[in-house]
Specification:
The complex is a heterodimer. By secondary structure, chain A is mainly α. Chain A is 73% helix and 0% strand. Chain A has 14 helices and no strands. Chain A is globular, with a radius of gyration of 23 Å. Chain B has two domains: 188 residues, 3-Layer(aba) Sandwich (D-Maltodextrin-Binding Protein, domain 2); 224 residues, D-Maltodextrin-Binding Protein, domain 2. In chain B, the strands form two sheets. In chain B, strands 1, 2, 3, 6, 7, 8, 9 and 10 form an eight-stranded mixed β-sheet that branches. In chain B, strands 4-5 form a two-stranded antiparallel sheet. In chain B, a hairpin with a 2-residue loop joins strand 4 and strand 5. The longest helix of chain B has 22 residues. Chain B starts with a helix and ends with a helix. The chains are: A mainly alpha, B alpha/beta. At the A-B interface, helix 6 of A face helix 2, strand 2, helix 4 and helix 11 of B.
Chain lengths: 276, 437
């Protein structure tokens, strides 16, 4: 009897989870479907779900009009570059906050998070002027540094939370065995925190990939990533929904594929230490 | 001469040739929006580059609001990212006066500046200097379904009144079949519902400010305008009209849900294109409505190409603008895309071209609409500003967007017309006092 109730609950929960997942995924699915429609079918009323004339024309037009690979490469370089730089700075910072906290550690952590609440546009002009004077406007390097700084509070917070779950005695034992600080972080702490670091890396790549304020305002041609690619298909006077959907699908495809293959690691990392 | 010396000399010569080539090659970066006419211009870039060896064109296409933000930031900070920018009739007089744009009086003999439509040219000129060259111009007019009008037993005059529009809209509405008499902009924004409402208010005798820059939203004329607009859309508009802008109404009209649509004349080529529009063969055109007071409810706008003062390649930029907005460009587009797809509303010669008039049944109505708009005397009473559907002051964009949100809320039923106008009056008074008018 108990088994029957458990099974019923399991089926119900699974169904609810699927419904929620489908609801969340539906806008992406609709975008993908629209990308295969003609412009006339894209605005058809009632909307056409699957019974429309499937076409690859929008992809051909987008590919013809835009240098997709250049945008893609810029997105990869900016997302991966800012994540790598962020991790490099955040691991030692989170280590010190987790294992050798000072009186002000909690305050610093809160202050770091408060910077995420500032409106980005407030510092647009100073940052832009600095980039003009240093000749770094419209460069990937500038965006890597800016996105690193923007996402650093989240990286430090996530790593701090994971590191706090690791018993300090293990690190003490390593130190007693003669491990240097570098060895302690590299060979003892990091391997134990791999799930946490991996999920932090993945989340930060997603955040950097989707960032649209700085990437749109500080780039023109050379460093423009996929956010600029999508923006170029939005039209104030004209219905190009199918082409916009094709551009959007091409822009989200790499991150969607990455998320699909790494979802196990992502979920494991995000739930790491959630149950005490 | 040894082999090493020869190699060194060869390398030096190659380097020198490289520098020489670099000195000759100029790359211009053009910021634009993703409208159909701009897309066609991008597609013809190869022709320009072939005619102008040494000039390479890079396009940066952005969403309209992002474009404005980026271009404003770039000019204000002297970034020099763009050599040509696509801006509208609202920005040109303000930016030209501030010295942010380079004068375009010298675009060459082939450019034929006197061929530009006087209304459009006037809107882009400050103190006798042309600061932007119009790429395509537009006014607004009534686009209507001839079959539905006939079924309603009515005959659309060439110059209808608002009262006729109301009568026709109610007669054409058939909610059971999802047909709504009139589709109008309701989405908040200075270039969305406020462009329509400001142009409409002119025909009701309303104005934004009196001669002393005192806001006038507490006037009877504004109350009549807003109440008429709300009643019209509530009686004969589509559901969710407060969310509809140009594109949403275009989709509704093309799929047969609107009896009439009062909007940009550039839409005429979309709604009569059988590839995209289900009602292409039954569309008629009329001037924007009036109230017998003189001004009609139509606007005036031109997407134009300008050179920011921070450009480091002004000569190449001038060459491009002269090519893309010159009299020869329309012939090039016609050759590649057909006469119906040439950028409209900028040159007198286009409206004297029989090929164009044959291909575009809306051409004469577009020209009449453009010519009937007067940016210097937009409404009945005198005003201290220029602009038909906007007020050419820097504060307008932000203020009109805020007021647009209030009016959109009134359309959505969240507030009354009276409260919305009171809020608009307060917002405008506060803004103008803060700005020191």
């Amino acid at each position: 009897m108990a088994r029957a109730i458990t099974t019923q609950r399991k089926i119900t929960l699974t169904a609810v989870a699927w419904i929620i997942a489908l609801l969340i995924f539906f806008p992406i699915l609709w975008t993908i479907l629209t990308s295969f429609k003609t412009e006339a079918d894209a605005i058809a009323d009632p909307p056409l779900f699957l019974n429309f004339h499937w076409t690859l024309e929008n992809y051909a037009v987008v590919q013809d009009r835009s240098d997709y690979m250049r945008y893609l490469w810029n997105s990869i370089a900016i997302a991966v570059g800012s994540t790598a730089l962020g991790i490099l700075i955040a691991v030692p910072a989170a280590w010190s906050m987790a294992f050798v906290p000072g009186k002000k550690t909690k305050d610093i952590l809160l202050w770091m998070l408060s910077t995420k609440m500032l409106p980005a546009v407030g510092v647009l002009y100073p940052i832009r002027l600095i980039l003009i004077q240093t000749g770094l406007l419209d460069t990937k390097g500038a965006l890597i540094v800016i996105l690193t700084l923007i996402n650093l509070p989240i990286i430090v917070w996530m790593l701090y939370t994971y590191f706090k779950e690791i018993p300090g005695e293990i690190l003490e034992a390593a130190r007693m065995d003669g491990a240097t600080l570098r060895s302690e972080i590299l060979y003892v702490l990091t391997p134990m925190a791999v799930p946490g670091i991996a999920s932090t890396v993945l989340l930060n790549i997603i955040l950097a990939w989707n960032e649209a304020f700085w990437t749109l305002t500080l780039t023109t041609v050379d460093a423009a990533p996929l956010t600029a690619f999508i923006a170029s298909y939005s039209s104030p006077e004209g219905l190009f929904y199918a082409k916009l959907s094709a551009a959007s699908t091409m822009a989200i495809a790499p991150i969607l594929i990455m998320g699909w293959f790494s979802q196990k690691q992502l979920v494991r990392g995000l739930t790491f230490g959630a149950v005490k | 001469m040894t082999r090493t010396t020869r190699a060194l000399l060869g390398a030096t010569a190659l380097t020198a040739m490289g520098f020489a080539a670099a000195a000759q090659d100029t790359t211009i970066t053009i910021a634009t929006v993703n409208n159909g006419d701009m897309i066609r211009m991008q597609g013809l870039t190869d022709v320009f580059e072939a005619e102008n060896p040494g000039i390479t064109v890079e396009w940066v296409t952005l969403e309209e609001n992002v474009l404005r933000q980026n271009v404003t930031t770039d000019i204000a900070t002297g970034g020099g990212q763009y050599d040509i920018i696509t801006i509208g009739t609202y920005e040109v007089p303000i930016w030209g006066e501030r010295g942010w744009l380079q004068s375009l009086n010298d675009l060459g003999d082939d450019y034929n500046i006197d061929d530009l439509l006087p209304a459009i040219r006037g809107g882009l000129t400050v103190d006798g200097n042309l600061y932007a060259s119009p790429f395509y111009g537009e006014s607004s007019m009534v686009m209507y379904r001839t079959d539905l009008m006939e079924a309603a037993g009515l005959d659309m005059p060439d110059a209808p009144t608002w009262e006729f529009i109301r009568e026709a809209a109610i007669a054409m509405t058939d909610r059971d079949n999802d047909i709504y008499g009139v589709c109008l902009r309701g989405k908040p924004g200075w270039g969305e519902n406020m462009a329509f409402l400001t142009a409409m208010s002119n025909s009701f005798g309303a104005r934004w400010f009196d001669e002393n820059w005192t806001p006038q939203f507490d006037s009877e004329a504004w109350a009549t305008t807003l109440n008429f607009y709300l009643d019209l859309l509530n009686q004969a508009g589509p559901p969710g009209a407060a969310n509809n802008g140009f594109n949403e109404n275009l989709a509704l009209f093309q799929t047969g849900h609107c009896g009439m649509w009062i909007d940009a004349t550039v839409a005429a080529s979309f709604v009569t294109n059988p590839d995209d529009s289900q009602v292409a063969d039954s569309v008629g055109f009329a001037l924007a409505p009036d109230n017998g007071l003189g001004p009609r409810g139509n606007w005036l706008w031109a997407w134009s190409l300008a050179i920011p003062s921070s450009s480091d390649a002004p000569d190449a930029a001038r060459a491009f603008i002269s090519w893309a907005t010159g009299p020869g460009y329309v012939g090039l587009v016609a050759e590649n895309e057909g006469w119906a797809n040439v950028p409209p509303g900028t040159r007198t010669s286009l409206y004297e071209n029989q090929d164009y008039l044959d291909a575009a049944p809306f051409a004469q109505m577009t020209l009449d609409s453009i010519n009937s708009a007067d940016p210097t005397n937009p409404t009945v009473d005198p005003v201290p500003y220029t602009g038909v559907q906007f007020v050419a002051i820097p504060e307008f964009a932000g203020l009109a967007t805020e007021i647009g949100q209030v009016f959109s809320a009134a359309l959505a039923g969240q507030t009354t017309a009276e409260d919305a106008l009171a809020q608009a009056q307060d917002l405008a008074t506060e803004e103008m006092e803060a700005a020191g008018y």
